[in-house]
Amino acid sequence: xxxxxxxxxxxxxxKTLQKYLGKDFxxxxxxxxxxxxxxxxxxxxxxxxxxxxxxxxxGKGKIIKELKNAAANSxxxxxxxxxxREGEAIAWHISKILNGDRKEIYRVLFHEITxxxxxxxxxxxxxINANLVDxxxxxxxxxxxxxxxVSPFLWKTLYRGLSAGRVQSVALRIIVEREREIEAFVxxxxxxxxxxxxxxxxxxxxxDLHKIDGEDPDIGSEEEMNTLIADLQDRDFIVDxxxxxxxxxxxxxxxxxxxxxxxxxxxLRFSPKRTMALAQRLYEGVNVGGETLGLITYMRTDSxxxxxxxxxSAQKVIGEWAGKKYQLAKPRQYTSKKSQVxxxxxxxxxxxxxxxxxxxxxxxxxxxxxxxxxIWYRMIGSQMKAAKYDRTTIDVTAGEEYLFRCTGSILxxxxxxxxxxxMPGGYEYDKDQTVPESLEExxxxxxxxxxxxxxxxxxxxxxxxxxxxxxxxxxxxxxxxTYSQIITTLYDRDYVRRNGRHLLPTDLGYTVNxxxxxxxxxxxxxxxxxxxxxxxxxxxxxxxxxVSVVKDFYGPFRKSLSAVEHRSKDIKESLQEETEEVCEKCxxxxxxxxxxxxxxxxxxxxxxxxxxxxxxxxxxxEQTDEICEKCGGPMVIKSGRxxxxxxxxxxxxxxxxxxIPVGVKxxxxxxxxxxxxxxxxxxxYGCANYPDCKFAVWDKxxxxxCPECDASFLVEKHTKSKGDFLRCLTCKSExxxxxxxxxxxxxxx
Length: 749
Known about the structure:
34 strands, 19 helices, Topoisomerase I, domain 2, Rossmann fold, six-stranded antiparallel β-barrel, single chain, 32% helix, alpha+beta
């Protein structure tokens, strides 16, 4: 039996660490949290300083028994869970479970799963960080207090099964308020003027109207533009100044969690949930050339700091990959302007600098390769020389009142753009128009055309996953590690749906938001939620006690809740909508009410008359990123008598349809696994190449490799005794559903 026991939270991480550590260590996994607040009770003694009651998570009894047996047969126990609040809390719960054994229990931190990272962690054992545990516990308790006390209020005012969340509801509010801003937007007309000019020995070039009497142009109508053009007709256009200078543009910093989620959503169209799941696999270890390697540092961080060792390695790689002229004389360090940055971890960067993306291409699944490429080139680019442009600015005057400007740039040295252009999807660097070289100051130029253009102001854009993450990060709502779960929850609750790449509130989302904002204005707002994040950070830093933070929150919260609890019936009635339809049973007016399946028509004479019927509305098709193979149009999700299916958005011109793919390849022939429906109406999942391939399963496959046997996918299962969980069809291993949700609900970097 190995004399040392190392416990981590992830089976795949345990598998990688075991290969590095050898026979002196036994590496076990807790498979996420082992204890939590009880599911069907508040689990918090409010009168006794908010003392939490933790219970063993269903299905974890067997794992706890295995961990205890392993600890009993080991001399030293190390807890190597993730280096963040959530990981610290898992380690603390494990230590409490093992406390009966008289073993030395040490906390070790692995910021990267490499030989040096593992050795460094084991050589610097420490105690569990009580401040981190307290910060996680405070967050968990705050979220439980809000969720378990506001959600029943929603049940009474709308219908049972809805949920409110301390951070989730603020994210919903941000989306709803943006949509209402778009709906209320009134476009304003404005005009721009472009002069097509030509010197004695130049081609025609374009200069834009830049100033009128030293002020920015403000031309709001065609009449104003016509008056301006008439005033310019007889004026001489003279080259006033020609400025030439070299401009440097520096690279962006390496990725933080938030920046990675934004860039992956924009460049790769990955959801934040997908990005974090892939990054977790790159951190914990993937197979490269028959060897399991952790390819990136810990992926939950809001720091842009880089270790000196990484900076030196980057310069060496840059010299080999791009050439010495791209190397920096002195490494570039980045600092953040944000006040909430926790600097415990480095930025997200590659750990294997000797493995550029081209060396692992073909050895990693496509999506893993794309994300690794994004991280590798962003980090390398951050340590390359600046890009250099020759920029020429030509100012042309038309009398004393009018100034026209023409600007052009020529890229002289690509610098870091060499790395950016190698990223998935490439990178478009700044390109201005070509400016004439042979003009001279004081030269009169001919006016070939004065071209007016009409414009209208645009409303603010709809949020997409990338821009929502950016906004949450900017306002300090939640932590970067929670963004994927926030967005996933909004989808799961049907508060928000995707339309193409846009996030749009549903009717339910609008209604829930309006109720929460109206009756809890001081709780569900951005400023208050951001301030709570500051308080949690102070707990982590040891500056505040968690009990006092929770107590300060709970007083005003309970007061707001008490003020509206007795009004739930009145609020419910206020949400009803009158109609002109008459009840065919009693003749009373029908009203629109909310129910579990959405809005429906009900008799206003209830409870004397209980007549109800469906609300006749045509559901809008759900937009997707799928492209029609016949006409190239966008495909949408529709519902028919045999369930949901993909249909061409250009119907009736194009009547192409196909089943909905689930994003997993068939293990038998590599075809797409799609959603189907049996003769009796039950949903199942089968190969799109049926009848040539008859592979089919009842449970929904998800794109996640089995941590035990490396099978290509897992399936979602549900039983009354176990609830929701994941299962491998090959080795029959079972895993908690949290593994498909980035193994984190409320963690913080």
